[in-house]
Model the fold of this input.
Amino acid sequence: MKKRLGPSDRLYPMPASLICGGTMEEADACAVAWMGICATNPPRVAVALRESRRTLELIRVTGTFTVNTPRADDAAYADFFGIVSGHQRDKFAGSGWTLEPSDLVEAPRIAECPYQLECRVEQEVELGSHVLLIAEVVESHAEEGVLDATGEKVDVALLDPLVYIAGSREYRRLGEKVADAYTIGKTIG
Ligand SMILES: Cc1cc2nc3c(=O)[nH]c(=O)nc-3n(C[C@H](O)[C@H](O)[C@H](O)COP(=O)(O)O)c2cc1C
Done:
């Protein structure tokens, strides 16, 4: 028996990403869970931001941003970026976290995050509570220490990304592998 819960903005889990806008001289970043990959060729990401975010102001200056994946062990830093606004404080000075330049876009990357995407905004879609930024992912970076044996792909166990659970408002890390995708389904039918 299922219980109806009404209209919902929740999916389980959600990413706990840090979106960074601005330049090496003036940057801001905020925690974002309302986001996801939405196309492959070219790769595109969709990020939902409230109009009030200072990060959005800075994204609009250059038309670029970066997506930075924090480690689960860095939940306190990620949360700091999600509860403090750049309208009040410089979060990089406040946290001690640092910026590194991107290769293809003006927006910098967050050096302490082991996986990063460089993005160029293509469209803004007004959604009421949020503005949806649809952006092309023009480059990606991963720390060598989170790559698998081929050296070409991220090993998610090594990445150990922080994930966010809406509703209970908690951070978690991923559990163990369950099965191989595009394979285990062949055992059915
Ligand atoms: C776990 C978590 C997830 C969040 N997800 C979003 C989001 O998807 N979109 C958004 O606009 N704000 C989101 N926020 C809130 C912003 O990160 C927060 O308001 C931040 O202080 C904005 O900083 P800024 O004004 O410097 O950009 C989230 C906060 C937390 C803690």
